[in-house]
């Protein structure tokens, strides 16, 4: 059974999705979905252990050896990303047991769980597969499921947000598919390891360079890199709160993973640098994203939209790390990929608790919330401190390595800009703290919700939120897992050098 873990990682949620339709009660469907996600998390943990102990795992589907057959290839980078995706998916779906009832009608919840599992299967498939066309297939599975998940929002604007994302996502997928087509016409293979061996022979080829540009633009649309980010704020703001928590912590991270995988493993750093001035482009767009998105976030009255723009800024930090083109810069990106998933997962789960209790994520609803919902608000404060990059949180670890990378590359101005971006995060996080702890509530809680035992969020929402908060703190102190793994991955991707 252990030898089949790579395929089981995808098959479990993929088969569990239609199986949900066989259960006639939403509570049973929720329990079944929790078990499926929990099993995916267990498989991810086992895969990370196996890869760290025995090296890269290769699984040939149907007994057809690569490159003729489809290969699932799990290395340290794949296992690292799958751990965070399946972990966040499990915690969010645990919270859904209570958190969905205020935002999605009971009769639609079964279909919601089906869609959720399909999205999870697609995201895990992107990370697990070693076939570039399979990447496109799984990207479409996760994207189609994501459009549906966003459309479940109770505000009718969720339909527009889903449609907007569908249009942008389709354009991005088309760019990626065109790039894959160029690569296949040039090399005659779709296996990523085989592509990596053949592309150097095509150095200087316009076809290879064109394929690279198409793929990079398509992936950047998916990961919401500034200025290709316009779909993201509406998607996060109008989707159900738990959907936002899941997507913010997983979907864009898998897209960043895909950019790293294709850039470093398939095309190679030397090819990418010779095809176009990629480092300068990524540094410029990353810094622009940090500042533009952070400034816009400061003036947002809707807190979900505020943290959506914050996510665009944090994606900018990840792209800056890639833009340095060094091992420590790539390590900073991998650290922030993992750590930002923990931060945003905690923040959006806490916001889901606020929406569950108050029915709104507007800044006015946060007035006096520190007294009404002390545990929920404390989780938001700690998540916000991690977002800023305070010591003893995971955010500090990410920002520290990013600054080290800038200094090592001799880019002191970039290091100062990273610090300045963190100061902007202080401003929008302080708006929440000020409203929650220093302003009186505008109104009392709705009738029936103001009893002393009904002020705080239910435990099914609080426990997953606080698990992520505690992990934020623990991994901010004990960094062996994240720093050790990300360092090993960065060295492997860059051939052990800079």
Gist of the model:
The protein is mainly alpha-helical. Helix content is 75%, strand content 2%. It is built from 20 helices and 2 strands.
Element pattern in H and E: HHEEHHHHHHHHHHHHHHHHHH
**Structural class per helix/strand content?**
mainly alpha
C-alpha end-to-end distance: 39 Å
Strand order of the largest sheet: 1-2
Oligomer, anyone? single chain
Share of helical residues: over 70%
Shape: globular
Q: What does this molecule look like?
A:
The protein is mainly α and 498 residues long. The chain has a domain at 277-498. It is built from 20 helices and two strands. The chain has helices at residues 5-19, 26-54, 76-99, 109-128, 132-151, 157-187, 192-198, 206-223, 232-238, 241-267, 269-275, 278-298, 303-324, 327-358, 369-372, 374-388, 394-408, 412-438, 459-477, 480-493, and strands at 57-60, 71-74. It has a two-stranded antiparallel ribbon. It is globular and about 70 Å long. Mean pLDDT is 87; it is low at 445-454.
